[in-house]
Design a protein that fits this description.
- It is a single chain.
- This protein has 1 helix and 21 strands.
- A hairpin with a 2-residue loop joins strand 16 (194-201) and strand 17 (204-209).
- By secondary structure, it is mostly beta strands.
């Protein structure tokens, strides 16, 4: 089954926007919606999301993840990042938020789009690391079965990265992390929201910004494909988080940064309709 997922995100908005036009993820070529999540309740939909708490090297890094940093209200999901002074010193503790769909919602192949206005302030976001990504819904060693990073921006540097991580090894937990990555510039990442997307199919993984492809990874892009298939073929789950630091100098002027998501649209397709639309016989 193939899915098209659109996540719509804003930063520091007073009211939600009910109409969002997707440039990559749209109802076309036989695709049709199967679920719409608009955060209309005052709590997360527990059939979709898990809130991650505690220390997590991948999701929080130097920040502690707490449920209090995950807020739903007014049709908006907010993941807040805070800094707290440690006594009378110049040091700080950090907290942040993360939500994932592991074991609740998972997909194999499709399009996934994040409409986001990213957290941070230009010149004052050293150490801020928002990300939207996909991971295997199993207990395999990362990246034995792959990792798809739809969007990462580090330090508010106006560069978004789309990255596919994979392992050259045949057996679990013995291979090194190999990756193929592309990037695009987003000059107004903190003021406007943009569509960060990926198309994941059997023979390629392509990354998009506002509907324009900036990196296409195919089987020909990947070494050793005869010994270890590289394009993932198992279900993946979705992750949304803001990490802080982890071997990155942290220089934050503000005590709070907010990342806000206002809707989740999920699409799948009818195989016959899609084949006709694509001209297949």
């Amino acid at each position: 089954m193939s899915l098209l997922v659109s996540l719509v995100s804003l930063l520091l908005v007073a009211t939600r926007c009910d109409v969002v036009v997707s440039l990559l993820c749209e109802e076309t070529n036989g695709y049709h919606p199967v679920m719409v999540e608009e955060f209309v309740d005052q709590h997360l939909n527990n059939s979709i999301w898990n809130v991650v708490v505690g220390k997590d090297a991948g999701l929080g890094r130097d920040a502690t993840l707490t449920a209090a940093n995950v807020i739903v209200g007014g049709g908006i999901l907010t993941l807040s990042t805070h800094r707290y002074p440690i006594g009378n010193t110049s040091l700080f503790n950090f907290t942040s938020g993360a939500v994932i769909t592991k074991d609740k919602q998972k997909w194999t192949f499709g399009r996934f789009c994040v409409h986001a206005r990213l957290p941070g302030v230009p010149g004052y976001s050293q150490g801020v690391w928002p990300a939207h990504w996909l991971m295997p819904n199993d207990n395999s060693c990362d990246p034995d079965h792959g990792e798809i990073d739809i969007m990462e921006m580090v330090n508010g540097d106006s560069v978004t990265y789309g990255t596919f991580h994979y392992s050259d090894a045949k057996t679990n937990c013995t291979g090194e992390d190999s990756k193929l990555s592309g990037s695009a510039t987003v000059s107004d990442w903190d003021e406007e929201y943009h569509e960060y997307g990926v198309e994941w199919e059997e023979d390629h993984i392509a990354f998009y910004l506002d509907g324009a492809m900036f990196k296409n990874i195919t089987l020909n892009s990947i070494s050793n494909k005869e010994t270890h298939p590289k394009i993932p073929t198992i279900p993946f789950y979705f992750l949304l988080n803001t990490a802080i630091g982890k071997n990155v100098l942290i220089l934050l002027l503000y005590t709070e940064y907010k990342f806000q998501t206002i809707s989740l649209l999920m699409f799948t397709y009818d195989q016959k309709r899609r084949s006709l639309a694509w001209g297949a016989k």
